[in-house]
Specification:
Helix 2 runs antiparallel to helix 3. This protein folds into three domains: 159 residues, Regulatory protein AraC (Jelly Rolls, Sandwich), CATH 2.60.120; 46 residues; 76 residues, Homeodomain-like (Arc Repressor Mutant, subunit A, Orthogonal Bundle), CATH 1.10.10. The chain is elongated and about 75 Å long. With 291 residues, it is an alpha+beta fold.
């Protein structure tokens, strides 16, 4: 595998290139020292990305980090735009996405691809300029384009999978909740962590799990409370607060919603009597909290 680098001008922070490939073009397996955005406008081919192979079709966009290797095997009529980006010009949240989500890939429909192409054209024109304002605008456009890809990739993955375990974005959101459920966490906070709006973040979770943000978070807290009820002598008040609830009253109401009995009653159950919470969409909440 080769390391392929290019000299990105410090005055720009990126290079935007347009390609028309000959039939049968095949690159070597390689990786870069920069972030690469590949937008396939026309044609077909295959894309070997790390250890997987994907079919390329019109409207595909791939974003590769400095940790990714890839190889292109292009068949016919391939036109593409390649943007090599110095990671330093990217927003910190976007750089975090690149480090977590692999592959970062989406497919734009004709209308979306046209809008994306218009941004490419603006970027191309700014590249020809030699002033600070052009760089400021170009940086904003590049970050905007990457946000488009991140959002579309999240939606594509959610709609194409029935379970969050096969959905990189939702899976990472749920892992974040599993690690932080005892804290005072909200949907806006989760959305900010992953650079989405709260409404969009809620939609991703609902489509992936079949339950709302609040139900998923409360289930994590109640399950943890169940462990404390059965394995410790802590008071119910302390268990409520240790599990992330703000009041004993809300803890009681939530616990009864999920289990149908009070926490005190649950504590008296034998191992044969232990019950599981309700199910939604034929998937138990226990299944949705497996790491």
């Amino acid at each position: 595998m080769l390391f392929c680098d290019i000299n990105i001008p410090a005055s720009h922070g990126y290079i935007c290139r347009k390609h028309v490939f000959e039939d049968g073009y095949k690159s070597t397996l390689h990786w870069h020292g920069f972030v690469e955005l590949e937008f396939f406008i026309e044609g077909t081919g295959t894309h070997k990305y790390n250890n997987s192979t994907f079919q390329i079709k019109s409207g595909d966009v791939w974003v590769l980090s400095t940790d990714d290797s890839h190889q292109l095997d292009l068949h016919k009529g391939m036109k593409s735009v390649n943007i090599a980006v110095n990671p330093d010009i990217l927003h910190d949240k976007l750089k975090k996405h690149l480090s977590i989500f692999h592959p970062l890939h989406c497919n734009f429909n004709k209308e979306e691809a046209l809008a994306f192409s218009e941004k490419v054209d603006i970027l191309w024109n700014e590249q020809e300029q030699q002033n600070i304002l052009s760089r400021v605008k170009a940086n904003a456009i590049i970050n905007d384009m990457l946000v488009d890809v991140v959002r579309k990739a999240a939606l594509d993955n959610t709609l194409s999978n029935n379970h969050f375990a096969n959905n990189g974005v939702a899976n990472n959101m749920l892992k974040y909740l599993q690690a932080n459920f005892k804290n005072d966490i909200s949907l806006p906070e989760l959305a900010s962590e992953f650079s989405f709006t709260p409404n969009y973040c809620g939609q991703i979770l609902k489509k992936a799990t079949g339950i709302s943000f609040n139900d998923y978070l409360n289930n994590l807290r109640v399950k943890y409370a169940c462990e404390l009820l059965l394995s410790t002598d802590l008071s119910i008040q302390n268990i409520a607060f240790d599990s992330g609830f703000h009041s004993v009253e809300y803890f009681y109401a939530t616990f009864k919603k999920f289990y149908g009995i009070t926490p005190a009653k649950y504590r008296t159950l034998t191992s044969q009597e232990i019950i599981t919470p309700f199910t939604l969409k034929n998937r138990s909440l226990d299944e949705l909290t497996k790491p």
